[in-house]
């Protein structure tokens, strides 16, 4: 069974040209049109569209897609709901780990209490595809090649996503919540089994204790393994994330006269949530893109660090020192930092270059979404209030949100009126008193 690999620097157009056509009766024009349809549709419909694309090649009853990316993982399903929604996250992650990137195999997958035949495909960039009950005869190599193209497109779409995409991913991660739910179920099952052994009338006290101890020990090992899988799927070691950044930047600077120097992060730094790792790479890429086409910049230094609470990013160039946080070239960079609740600052020295510093919190902010409807706050007012209660002044809020200081004052006045308060201190006290989980006095 053949396989098609996509090199790290290869783009979609190059990958598409490498799709092999076998002797299977497939109309190549229809295949390409179907591929365009998959890639032209919204990412949320990828599973359904890809299922329709490969159905003439390999008949199947359902499809599952699992990608580890911005939102801590994205899962989609289409077709037979028993399969599409019945395979556990832990089982999917096990399959993704067993298969090497850029490979395909046919093997059963556990669904509920039984197993179902499946075609298992992992793209060159690590996105898992499952087809349930595949037809016996099918060009699996073509399915792999098509999936390589689609998976690379998904990655590029996420890389170019708007800051809102990062903000939504930061607020919640479907796969992460699903994984945690499964872990809770595993924990509950282990406890119930231990209790059943202790209450059993067929065991004496010593036998019941021995059985319960064995069940508990086995359960703990299983839970630790599952927890580690969840963590490594939804988080990324800082050193690994930085290495991916280096890979991303190579094509950008390959044919430009600019030297990008990398200062390695500590290998034992805290792992990054996937949306932070993705957002940080997007911020640095955007910064480099703003610099590479300037003839007066010949060297850029990129450094990451982690203080246990924040990811610290530093980008320094040797240009004329005229870039600021208000520069048009850095508008998207600024928006991405704000979307992740980060802080962006610049220090420019005329004739010596510009230094950009970014601080990104690793833990998600306490969302105001639950309170906003009751307080009738708009999205921008909620953002201003979040920064206000964090102790930031109007000028700092204006810089973070990319708006004028007068606009901040306008929002603050409206917030005070809606909350029925007269000062920042009262607003902070009001919010802390009414947030879920806070004690009310």
Short summary:
The protein has helices at residues 12-17, 28-40, 46-54, 81-84, 89-98, 140-159, 163-171, 174-199, 205-234, 238-253, 274-292, 331-339, 372-375, 379-389, 394-401, 405-419, 424-434, and strands spanning 62-67, 74-79, 103-111, 114-122, 128-132, 235-236, 259-263, 272-273, 299-306, 310-317, 343-349, 353-361.
Mean pLDDT: 75
Count of helical regions: 17
Please give the largest β-sheet. Answer: 5 strands, antiparallel
Low-pLDDT stretches? 1-24, 171-175, 366-372, 436-441
CATH architecture of the largest domain: 2-Layer Sandwich
Sheet-strand content, in percent, reads 15-25%
How many domains, as an integer? 4
Please characterize this protein's 3D structure.
This protein has 441 residues and is an alpha+beta fold. The chain is globular. It folds into four domains: 12-163, Beta-Lactamase; 173-235; 237-361, Histidine kinase-like ATPase, C-terminal domain (Heat Shock Protein 90, 2-Layer Sandwich), CATH 3.30.565; 372-434, Arc Repressor Mutant, subunit A (Orthogonal Bundle). The strands form three sheets. It has a five-stranded antiparallel beta sheet, with helices on both faces. The chain has helices at residues 12-17, 28-40, 46-54, 81-84, 89-98, 140-159, 163-171, 174-199, 205-234, 238-253, 274-292, 331-339, 372-375, 379-389, 394-401, 405-419, 424-434; strands at 62-67, 74-79, 103-111, 114-122, 128-132, 235-236, 259-263, 272-273, 299-306, 310-317, 343-349, 353-361. The longest helix is centred in the middle third of the chain and has 30 residues, at 205-234. The protein starts with 11 loop residues before the first helix and ends in a 7-residue tail after the last helix. It has 17 helices and twelve strands. Helices cover 50% and strands 17% of the residues.
